[in-house]
């Protein structure tokens, strides 16, 4: 059964001016339900994550400033919106949804978090609308519980997974791969285990050629027993924050191929949705729903 972490709090507590792109968190499950691809049984609402698990990944002082709403204004500006109790709750529920997704992926092969992909959050900073790094937290959870020995993080969002790279810089059990727009945010990049920076305007063929060449090699070389996949749709040509030029069809093929490689290798995969900032909300929702459609075709 396809299990999808979803909670209304994913969308609602955002400040004015940030709500439009966050509508997708409500509209994606609504669209999948409307198409009859899922039912209510596929959706689950995660509980808040415990502090002990958060502290496997994030610096104690940084976490306490988030929890107590005492993060300095400069650091709040780096995140991109003012800190509130509801926003912190949103982040810890997203992280728990990704952890729950790992257990579901072990059972069913693949699992989704409607939100997540908060890859700009480092061990002691938040940035780019990210406060806690959901997939990094979940990876450390798996390692700590000895549920995985070798983890591959595939980040194909248009922005580099700089926080993820920093968190696992000295962790040999986690291999971080980021393919992203070279000139896109963040402008100070960290060093992933493998970075493929792309020039502005890269289109379908070049992007997919890199995916076709790199993902099977990484799976073969790293032999991971768990994969995290960040499937941001801000690679689309319509995206107002991205500088790549992919079609919606290529974005779907990207997701199909990554998921197929994991399935064929028998590796469970947790998918977080990442960014998408096209002017038309229908384009964002449809592109994200394509990721679910690909998974349903492959796994169920």
TrEMBL record:
<dbReference type="GO" id="GO:0016787">
    <property type="term" value="F:hydrolase activity"/>
</dbReference>
<dbReference type="InterPro" id="IPR000286">
    <property type="entry name" value="HDACs"/>
</dbReference>
<feature type="domain" description="Histone deacetylase">
    <location>
        <begin position="21"/>
        <end position="289"/>
    </location>
</feature>
<dbReference type="InterPro" id="IPR023696">
    <property type="entry name" value="Ureohydrolase_dom_sf"/>
</dbReference>
<keyword id="KW-0378">Hydrolase</keyword>
<dbReference type="GO" id="GO:0004407">
    <property type="term" value="F:histone deacetylase activity"/>
</dbReference>
<dbReference type="InterPro" id="IPR037138">
    <property type="entry name" value="His_deacetylse_dom_sf"/>
</dbReference>
<protein>
    <submittedName>
        <fullName>Histone deacetylase</fullName>
    </submittedName>
</protein>
<dbReference type="Pfam" id="PF00850">
    <property type="entry name" value="Hist_deacetyl"/>
</dbReference>
<dbReference type="InterPro" id="IPR044150">
    <property type="entry name" value="HDAC_classIV"/>
</dbReference>
<dbReference type="GO" id="GO:0040029">
    <property type="term" value="P:epigenetic regulation of gene expression"/>
</dbReference>
<dbReference type="InterPro" id="IPR023801">
    <property type="entry name" value="His_deacetylse_dom"/>
</dbReference>
<comment type="similarity">
    <text>Belongs to the histone deacetylase family.</text>
</comment>
């Amino acid at each position: 059964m396809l299990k999808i972490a979803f909670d209304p709090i994913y969308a609602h507590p955002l400040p004015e001016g940030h709500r439009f792109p966050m509508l997708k968190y409500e509209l994606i499950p609504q669209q999948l339900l409307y198409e009859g691809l899922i039912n209510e049984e596929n959706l689950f609402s995660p509980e808040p994550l415990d502090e002990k698990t958060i502290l496997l990944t994030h610096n104690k002082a940084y976490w306490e400033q988030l929890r107590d709403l005492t993060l300095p204004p400069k650091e709040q500006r780096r995140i991109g919106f003012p800190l509130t109790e509801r926003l912190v709750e949103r982040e810890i529920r997203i992280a728990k949804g990704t952890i729950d997704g790992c257990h579901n992926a072990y059972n069913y092969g693949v699992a989704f978090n409607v939100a997540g992909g908060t890859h700009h959050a480092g061990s002691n900073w938040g940035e780019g609308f990210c406060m806690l790094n959901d997939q990094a937290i979940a990876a450390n959870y798996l390692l700590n519980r000895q549920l995985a020995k070798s983890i591959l993080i595939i980040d194909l969002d248009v922005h580099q997974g700089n926080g993820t790279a920093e968190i696992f810089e000295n962790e040999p059990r986690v291999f971080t791969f980021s393919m992203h727009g070279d000139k896109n945010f963040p402008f100070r990049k960290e060093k992933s285990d493998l970075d493929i920076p792309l020039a502005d305007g890269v289109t379908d063929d070049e992007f997919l050629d890199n995916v076709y060449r790199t993902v099977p090699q990484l799976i073969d070389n790293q032999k991971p027993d768990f994969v995290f996949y960040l499937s941001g749709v801000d690679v689309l040509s319509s995206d107002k924050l991205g500088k790549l030029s992919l079609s919606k069809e290529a974005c779907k093929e990207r997701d199909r191929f990554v998921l197929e490689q994991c399935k064929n290798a028998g590796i469970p995969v947790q998918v977080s949705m990442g960014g998408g900032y096209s002017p038309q909300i229908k384009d964002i929702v449809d592109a994200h729903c394509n990721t679910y459609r690909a998974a349903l075709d492959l796994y169920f």
